[in-house]
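dumping this here before i forget
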Amino acid sequence: MLLRDWRLRVVRGLPQTGGCLMALAFLCLPPTPVQATSEAWLSGTPRLVESVNAVAYLGHSRSDVISPAQGVSQQAALAIPLSAPLRAPLPEKMTAAAEYDRDTSVPVTPLHVAQASATVTFVNPGIPGEQFWDTLVVTMHAAARDLNLELEVLHANRKQSRMLELIDQALERETPPDYLVLVNDSNIAARMLPAIEASSSKVLMIIHGVEDSRQTSYGVPGSPYTSWIGSLLPDMESAARHTARALLAGVRQQFASPPYHGLALIGEHSSTGIKRMNHGMLEVLVNAEGVVLDRVLEARWNQQDAERLTARYLSWLARKGKTPDLVWAGNTDMALGAIKALKAVNLVAGEDVLLAGLNWSPDSIEMVEDGRLLLTSGGHVMAGAWAMVMLRDHADNASLPARQIIFPMKAITANNVAIYGPALKQPDYDLVDFASFTRPLGGSYRFNPLDVLEAMMLHQNHQRDRGSDDTTYASSHRETLQ
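structure:
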C-alpha cells in the first residue's frame, strides 16, 4: 500500500471512514516541430497587435491582423493576446495530525502551537465575486483562524494603480502590518520591494513571482531585500502541460485520423505564472504531431469574451468546412463560454469536441462529472492557506531562511471525480487543521493540495460515520496522481 506513515496515523486516529480514490496516468507525447508562428511565441519574440476582444501575437506580417468587423483571420497564424462566504469555526478539528511527519526517517514532532498574534494584509488583485480569488481568500481565513493571525483583505479590483495605492497606504500606517501578502501581477510587487524594505513589514509573494529575467534587478527571496521572506508559487506550467497532454490523448482515442483542429483560450499574458502556464500548454499543443492549433485567444478570464471569441473561431472554421476537435481553457469561466458557443452551433462538448481546463471550482467539477470537461487541474487556491502557514512559522522563528516554494497542482478526471468531487463542490476548509502544516521537518515544506482535500474528507466522513475501507483505499492510491 502506497501510504505515508503520517497518513496512517491520521486514519488510525479516527473511526474508519468512507471514500475511495482512483489513479490517473497521463500520456506523455513526444514533441515534433511545427509552424514558425508558434515557435515565435515560444521564443518570446512575437509582435503585439490589438483587436476588439484580444491582443494578438503574430509571427508573420500585419496582413494577419484583422479588424473587429472581419471576425477571425483567414490565416492560420497563431493569434495570441499576448473564487464562498466564511463559515463559523467548528468546535472540533481533525487533530489526529498531531503526529504529523511526512519524512519517515525523522522522528515524529508534536503539532505546532501558534504563539503571539501577527497582522497580515493581503492585497487581492481581483474583484469581489471572482471565484478563484474568493476561494483563495476563504482558505486564507480558515488557516489564519487556526494559526492566530489577524488577516485583512484589500481588493485592487483589477487596477494596477489601485494595487500600488493599497500597498503604499498599508506601509504608511502608524502601525503597518507585520506581513504583506502580494501577487506580483505586472511586476507590481517587485517594484514595491524597496519601499517595503524601508518599512517594518515583511512580504510574501504568492501565485506569481519574479521572472528569472528580472532577478538581476530585484534579486531572489532574502537577497538583496531581506524583507522579502519568500515566494509561494503553484506549478501552473506543469499543470497546463499535463492537461494538454491528456486532451491530446483523449482526442486521438475518440476521433478519427488527424489533422485535429484546436483552440486555446488564455486569460492574459502579463503575469509570470500565467506566462509559464501558457508556455506549458503551447509546448504540447504546438509541437504535437497531427494537431493544428488554429488560434490562441485572450478571453480575459471571463465567460462572455470566451463565448464571443469561440463563436468567431467556429464561424471561420465552418467556412473552411471544418469543426474543432479540442479546446483548452485556462479557467472555468472561459470553458463555460466555449461550451455555450459550441452548443449554439449544435456541437456537444465531450462528444463532438473535447475540452480541458484549469481550476477546482464547483462548476469545473460539475463539468467533469457530466463529461463536458475531460479533466481540470487545480489546487492553486491552497496558496492562500499555505501563505498563512509560512507566515506563522516566520512569526515564531524569524531566523527561518527565505525561500521560494513551487507546489504541484492536481487533476480531477472522470476516474477520481466521484471521490474528490463532493468535497470540492461544497468545500469546508474550516475542517482542516492547517496548524499541522507548520514547522516543516528538515526545514522544507511539502505542500500538496490533495493533503488538504483528504484531511477535509476524513473529517466529513468521520462526521457521517460511514465506515473506513474506502478512505484507506483513497489515501493509498492518491500518490499516483499527477
